[in-house]
Amino acid sequence: MSSLISMIENGREAGRKTVPGPILLLGAPGVGKGTQAKELVKLWGIPQISTGDLLRANVARGTELGKVAKEIMGRGDLVPDTLVNEMVAVRLQQPDTVNGFILDGFPRTLNQAGWLDGRLSGQSESLPVVAVSIQVDYNQLLRRITGRRNCPVCQTIYNVYMKPSAVDGICDVEGAALVQRADDTEEAFAERMRVYAAQTAPVVDHYRGLGRFAEVDGDRAIDVVAAGIVAAVERLRAE
């Protein structure tokens, strides 16, 4: 067995022995947070909690929180931290979070991080949040995002730089013309990166200062990145 495969298997074995607790995945747009969250869900059997999913679910179900959020978003305003915190609080009461959960898109601000830490510290059985940041070079992220093309029929995703279709601009499966999302342009990406950096820097500093922060190289194979995250969580939980 190669050293690389051994590292992956050792990481997975460590994951089985670890009670993961709350994990915050950080990373710029395009680093693969969603992909890695799914890997960790399979490994540890804990849920992924996305604030975007929570918002959509509450609005769709017509909950009291969802009705308030729908009204706010209908005015074109941002949903305030207090409302997002309430939705997260309700979700954390579900029994599938007992061994931990993977946070995606929350906490996005320092206020949200403070609220979450305070809530978890008030629960004697809960571990504190550990934050793992997936790092990918800016130019590589730019290629991932701006090169992305979607088939409007079968939803297959291509990349003109890394995974091109056989015929330029045409889906291999459906023969349909591929499309680029409006927010996959270089200008839109630059703005998303600016907003991400401004919002996330205080959250990173917060968890780094608490000694509950690690970085992993995200420009590698999916399994290798997942093993790196597992190793980081194992190390942070042991400290």
Structure description:
The protein is of the alpha/beta class and 239 residues long. It has a domain of 128 residues: P-loop containing nucleotide triphosphate hydrolases (Rossmann fold). Helix content is 51%, strand content 13%. The protein has 9 helices and 7 strands; from the N terminus they run αβαβαααβαβαββαβα. The strands form 2 sheets. It has a 5-stranded parallel sheet, sandwiched between helices. It has a two-stranded antiparallel ribbon with strand order 5-6. α1 packs across α9, α3 crosses α4 and α5 runs parallel beside α6. 30% of the residues are buried. The N terminus is likely disordered.
Order of helices and strands: HEHEHHHEHEHEEHEH
**Euclidean distance between termini CA atoms:** 30 Å
Rg over CA atoms: 19 Å
Structural class, from helix and strand content? Answer: alpha/beta
**Could you say which overall geometry the principal axes of the C-alpha atoms support?**
globular
Strand content: 5-15%
CATH hierarchy, class of the domain at 3-47 and 94-137 and 200-238: Alpha Beta
Please state the average pLDDT score. Answer: 89
CATH topology of the domain at 3-47 and 94-137 and 200-238: Rossmann fold
